[in-house]
Amino acid sequence: MTTRPPLLDLYHWSTPVGAAVTIMLEESRLDYCVIPVDISKGDQFSPPFSTLSPNAKLPLLVDHDGPLERPFAIFESGAILLYLARKSGILLPASAEKLSLVEQGLFWVISSFGPMIGQSHHFRHYAPEPIAYALTRYDGEVRRLYAVLEKRLAKQGYIAGDYSLADLALIGWVRLHERHDVDLSAMPGITRWFNDMMARDTVSRGLAVGNEAIERRFSPA
């Protein structure tokens, strides 16, 4: 008996945005394959990956059973999360108001929280020499964004109220809080949220997906 390969290929390297997608795949229980793309060697700029991703950035998902019953590639982590939510029918509230709250939280992480932390990491750990202005600029913005997050999580369990795509997008960044010199002990709302997230089996499994090729099946082929 032959086995059908998973219909989803995830081009992946272990990054905060990649973690959001692997967690979502674990939540959705859709069979998938991980295809490593080593960004430390610049493999994202070479075929076959560069022919699939217009922006030559990870992650990238290829659904071999796409909307028109043919392979369909999706780039940008937020777009991938929304695509998987629609495909699997999970983590998308039916209420227009609740859905808008999820979208607001998700887009805030993608457009503000993640990019500012990414810039902070770059100038802290990868710049050839310290640049005082850049460190002041991005470290200050990181602290401002953490304050925004703490204010929200001090009042409710998750970013959008209920567990959602926004939390998946966020956890990969917050678990690196020590790397951008943020002390969570003074932020009880974020600390409680972080501990709750890390205790979820799907989050643990998604974060455990590393830089090796794997095939993940949730049901018999």
UniProtKB/TrEMBL annotation:
<dbReference type="InterPro" id="IPR036282">
    <property type="entry name" value="Glutathione-S-Trfase_C_sf"/>
</dbReference>
<dbReference type="InterPro" id="IPR010987">
    <property type="entry name" value="Glutathione-S-Trfase_C-like"/>
</dbReference>
<dbReference type="InterPro" id="IPR004046">
    <property type="entry name" value="GST_C"/>
</dbReference>
<dbReference type="InterPro" id="IPR036249">
    <property type="entry name" value="Thioredoxin-like_sf"/>
</dbReference>
<feature type="domain" description="GST N-terminal">
    <location>
        <begin position="5"/>
        <end position="92"/>
    </location>
</feature>
<protein>
    <recommendedName>
        <fullName>Glutathione S-transferase</fullName>
    </recommendedName>
</protein>
<comment type="similarity">
    <text>Belongs to the GST superfamily.</text>
</comment>
<dbReference type="Pfam" id="PF00043">
    <property type="entry name" value="GST_C"/>
</dbReference>
<dbReference type="InterPro" id="IPR004045">
    <property type="entry name" value="Glutathione_S-Trfase_N"/>
</dbReference>
<dbReference type="Pfam" id="PF02798">
    <property type="entry name" value="GST_N"/>
</dbReference>
<feature type="domain" description="GST C-terminal">
    <location>
        <begin position="95"/>
        <end position="221"/>
    </location>
</feature>
<dbReference type="InterPro" id="IPR040079">
    <property type="entry name" value="Glutathione_S-Trfase"/>
</dbReference>
